[in-house]
Specification:
With about 400 residues, the protein is an alpha/beta fold. It contains 17 helices and twelve strands. About 40% of the residues lie in helices and about 15% in strands. Strand 7 and strand 8 form a beta hairpin. It is elongated and about 85 Å long.
Length: about 400
């Protein structure tokens, strides 16, 4: 039986991408072994190429922020405002037998750039077309991640009780939309394998963002209970929060009355026994006092001692780790991904995938280096499309590639 690596390595995706939401999606596809070719303007490259520090002084389009989610891809340049550029796109789709075209251009640009579903599906009827926008194909409103966090309710749920709304520590609307788009693309591939038909997918970041508000929406709409930011505590369970130790912080989560009784049996925590706290409802009623008393006790212990004792008692606990500590965590360390620049030997470490893939296993967790701007123009346009040297030079001189 054919493995998933062989299945995905036979797929080709063209992606007119920039920033995070679509580049992370295609990065996930590259981890499956999909051939991903990112399209960029010959002059106005993906802005993220120039964010952070360049890894060497003469490459201002290869900066640190770009490396995290662009390994495993190829890159060509094309000016889709030129008819010859749009013709090149159509030839790419036809000659490379492209399976999916993905973009996060504003919807108003679909038709002028010739990247709309109607145009491209004429070239290849079974093409899967995926357009990611902030608020759907009928809106051209700007959609940076924090805008979605604000409008989609995430900011109101993040921060200290009574304090200012805060952004989340990662760009959840971007990354969440990428993951939801990944799932929709897989469904479209399954549909095509069964019916032979392509698909048009319009993914709106607002839909992805608000879909995470499972409890807040139901509580507000059905039970008239407004959920808002509560710092590190939980709306429904207690004690649940971050607590200090002698040398750091731990997160303790008591999810039921059995775990509470286990906590009372831990040496040093017996003083928390109180009739008011026997039930979760009672603990929530006096959560502020309980958290204060619990913090006073945890602060007398070293972090590692608490971790050992609580885990032996089957009480959920975790050290609040910094990013470098996370990278050294035994559950993480062996799953980090890496890439190396073949020109300089410069190495980049990247976050692990959400789930391992056959492709990554076969390549021992390594991916090809993030592509330089237009790096694969000669190979793809010349060798695969058959354009000669003179024609390529003319396209460069005219600003088409």
């Amino acid at each position: 039986m054919e493995g998933t690596s062989e299945i995905f390595s036979g797929l080709t995706v063209l992606s007119l991408e920039q920033a995070t939401v679509v580049p992370y999606l295609t990065y996930r596809l590259a981890q499956d072994g999909v051939r991903v070719i990112r399209l960029e303007h010959p002059v106005y490259c993906d802005p993220n190429r120039r964010i952070g520090e360049p890894f060497r002084p003469d490459e201002d389009r290869m900066c640190s922020y770009f490396f995290a989610i662009n390994a495993g891809k190829e890159a060509v340049t094309v000016n889709l405002k030129e008819e010859r550029g749009r013709e090149l796109l159509r030839r790419l789709i036809e000659r490379l037998d492209v399976d999916a075209f993905i973009t996060n251009q504003l919807p108003k640009n679909y038709n002028p750039l010739g990247i709309d579903y109607e145009t491209l599906s004429t070239v290849k009827p079974d093409l899967i077309w995926l357009g990611v926008s902030g608020f759907g194909p009928d809106s051209n409103e700007a959609a940076y991640d924090p805008i979605l966090q604000a409008r989609g309710g995430l900011m109101d749920l993040t921060g200290e009780a009574g304090g200012d709304p805060q952004v989340t520590g990662i760009p959840l609307p971007d990354m969440g939309t990428s993951e939801h788009s990944y799932g929709l693309l897989m469904k479209a591939l399954l549909k095509r394998s069964i019916t032979g038909k392509g698909s048009r997918i319009d993914m709106a970041m607002i839909d992805s963002t608000v879909s995470w508000l499972t409890q807040p929406v139901t509580m507000a709409a059905t039970f008239a209970r407004e959920m808002t930011r509560r710092g590190n505590t939980h709306e429904f369970f207690g004690p649940v929060s971050v607590y200090p130790t002698k040398d750091g912080y731990v997160y303790i989560a008591i999810g039921n009355d059995v775990q509470w009784k286990r906590l009372l049996s831990v040496p040093g925590f017996e003083g928390l026994e109180d009739g008011r706290f026997e039930s979760n409802a009672g603990r929530m009623a006096d959560a502020q006092e309980l958290n204060s008393r619990l913090a006073g006790i945890t602060g007398q212990f070293e972090t590692e001692d608490l971790l050992t004792t609580f885990r032996e008692a089957l009480i959920p606990i975790a050290k609040v780790q910094g990013i470098r500590e996370v990278m050294e965590d035994p559950a993480v360390k062996g799953k980090l991904l890496r890439t190396t620049d073949p020109e300089t030997g410069f190495q980049v470490t990247m976050a692990p995938p959400p789930a391992g893939t056959e492709f990554l296993e076969q390549h021992e967790g390594t991916m090809s280096f993030p592509p330089r701007h237009g790096e694969h123009n000669d190979g793809i346009y010349g060798e695969e499309l058959g354009l000669g040297d003179q024609e390529l030079e003319a396209l460069r001189n005219d600003g088409v590639i």
